[in-house]
Specification:
This protein has 515 residues and is mainly alpha-helical. The chain is built from 15 helices and eight strands. It folds into four domains: 1-108; 152-183 and 436-515, 2-Layer Sandwich (Alpha-Beta Plaits), CATH 3.30.70.1350; 201-321, Ribosomal Protein S8, Chain: A, domain 1 (2-Layer Sandwich), CATH 3.30.1370; 327-431, Hypothetical protein af1432 (Orthogonal Bundle), CATH 1.10.3210. The chain has helices at 2-143, 147-180, 185-191, 215-221, 226-235, 255-271, 276-305, 312-320, 331-349, 353-362, 377-387, 392-400, 410-424, 433-448, 476-493; strands at residues 206-210, 238-240, 247-251, 325-326, 329-330, 453-459, 464-469, 501-505. Helix 15 (476-493) links the parallel strand 7 (464-469) and strand 8. The protein is elongated. It starts with a helix and ends in a 10-residue tail after the last strand. 25% of the residues are buried.
Length: 515
């Protein structure tokens, strides 16, 4: 039994030893395989990293190559552009050099031609001097004139030729101006019709009042003249009672007072009660009514012209112009007309139409008080407008619409032109027969003072002057020069509203009688 146990123990030990050796063998083979596997993985990883490094190196080499190629292309393009610019600059330099050579040749040719022309002129001058001397000698021999007489005739001949040449030049330039007038019409509008007639007061300082009979004159005068003295004191107007039948004359320079006096006297005559207290009462009532009429007339004018924001005092002064006349033209209607014309001209010129109308309406505002203040109405009006806060353009238009000051803005010229247009239009103003005849004679005398003028006629109330020249002594060119000289002398010598058209007529007549 023990033997069996021993064998079993030995077998067990042997088996255990075999098992241990087997296990060790298995462990050694696993470790080897694991080592081999690790080596294999390390080798694979090394190869992968080697390939990655090679790829990265190749990519960097490719990028570097591309960058170098790009820089090379850019450098080559820059060099190409630089070469092209240099070629272009060289072409320009060559062209400039060629142009300079041409200019030098041209200058040389011009100098040569100029030298030749100077020589020709010297030669012609010498020939002309010889011919003149020869003609002078021949003229002296054949005509028997002295040297001084021959010189005078020669100068007269040259003067006539010069007049003909001047007339031809005038005709040529006038033709050119007519061709260009379409473009300068607006400028001509600003400079046209800026003259005005001389002042005239004889027909605008008196009014007449009809009376039913001559006995009324005694009642107006009153006992020892107390009624007429009371009336003149209340109105500030003179009452002229003379032998003229059926009328009493109201005289004074203030148009408002004159109108108050006229209406008050007419009421007193109608009422029949004429005594100092009644005179004062009627004059006060009439004065209040006239003031209301003045205010309404001024406001109506402002509304008609479409201007707002005026000082009430200016509106009152505008209304006073309703009773003021200039050459029988109502000054308030004249102001409204100037306002509209000024607005039209300003609109045509692209300026402020409302401002132009404001300037035109207020340009004669000084006439409302010029009999109360010293100085001309432009200066008085400018001071009033400045006092009541009007714009600079309005003040300057009132001050300079008669060209008494330096023109500083276009509205002044516009108002001056519109003022002349309104004053000179047909039917706007009238003048006495004596002044009319005197003005016509003055116009004709100026035209007759020119040489070769045979007759002259002032027509269309002096707005046109027709001049007849001698066809034998004057040519067409000379007639053109005379026309211009007459117009110039009229502008310098005569004051007139608007403009005067000068027409020079040269005609040739041939007359034969049949027998």
């Amino acid at each position: 039994m023990e033997y069996k146990l021993t064998i079993v123990g030995i077998l067990a030990a042997f088996l255990a030893l075999l098992a241990k050796n087997f296990i060790d063998t298995l462990r050694r083979s696993g470790a080897k395989r694991e080592a081999e596997e690790i080596l294999k993985q390390a080798k694979t990883e090394a190869e992968n990293r080697t390939r990655e490094a090679e790829l990265i190196a190749k990519e960097k080499a490719i990028q570097l190559k591309e960058k170098n190629e790009t820089e090379f292309r850019e450098t080559r393009q820059e060099l190409h552009d630089l070469e092209r610019r240099l070629e272009k600059r060289q072409d320009i330099i060559d062209k400039q050099a060629e142009d300079q050579r041409k200019q030098e040749k041209l200058i040389e040719n011009n100098q040569r031609k100029l030298t030749e022309r100077i020589a020709d002129n010297d030669r012609l001058k010498a020939e002309l001097t010889k011919l003149l001397e020869k003609e002078r000698t021949t003229l002296h021999e054949f005509s028997g004139l002295s040297k001084e007489e021959a010189t005078a005739k020669l100068l007269q001949l040259l003067d006539r030729e010069l007049q003909e040449e001047t007339g031809a030049a005038i005709v040529r330039y006038e033709r050119q101006m007519k061709e260009r007038c379409e473009g300068i019409t607006r400028d001509m509008l600003l400079l046209a019709m800026q003259r005005y007639a001389a002042p005239h007061t004889a027909e605008s300082t008196t009014n007449t009042v009809d009376i039913p009979n001559d006995d009324m004159k005694g009642r107006i005068i009153g006992r020892e003249g107390r009624n007429i003295r009371a009336f003149e004191k209340a109105t500030g107007i003179d009452i002229i009672i003379d032998d003229t039948p059926g009328v009493v004359i109201v005289s004074g320079f203030d148009p408002i007072r004159r109108e108050v006096a006229r209406q008050a006297l007419a009421r007193l005559i109608t009422d029949g009660r004429i005594h100092p207290s009644r005179i004062e009462e009627v004059v006060n009532e009439t004065n209040n009514e006239i003031q209301n009429i003045i205010t309404k007339a001024g406001q109506d004018a402002v509304n008609e012209v479409d201007i707002y924001g005026l000082n009430p005092r200016l509106i009152q002064l505008l209304g006073r112009l309703h009773f003021r006349t200039s050459y029988t033209q109502n000054v308030l209607r004249h102001a409204v007309e100037v306002a509209f014309i000024s607005g039209l001209i300003a609109a045509e010129l692209g300026l402020d139409e409302k401002l132009a109308r404001r300037c035109g309406l207020l340009h004669d505002i000084g006439k409302a008080v010029d009999h109360e203040t010293e100085g001309g109405h432009p200066k008085i009006g400018a001071d009033l407008l400045k006092r009541y806060g009007e714009p600079f353009e309005v003040i300057h238009a009132a001050l300079g619409h008669h060209e008494d000051v330096k023109i500083e803005n276009p509205y002044t010229i516009i108002v001056a032109a519109a003022d002349a247009c309104s004053a000179s239009r047909p039917g706007a103003r009238r003048e006495s027969m004596e002044n009319y005849v005197k003005r016509m004679e003055e116009l004709e005398a100026i035209a007759n003072s020119f040489e070769t003028v045979e007759q002259s006629f002032a027509v269309q109330a002096g707005r046109e002057l027709r001049v007849m020249v001698n066809a034998q002594q004057a040519t067409d060119e000379t007639a053109a020069k005379i026309c211009r000289d007459v117009a110039k002398k009229l502008s310098e010598s005569v004051q007139f509203p608007g403009e005067i058209k000068v027409t020079v007529i040269r005609e040739t007549r041939f007359i034969e009688t049949a027998k």
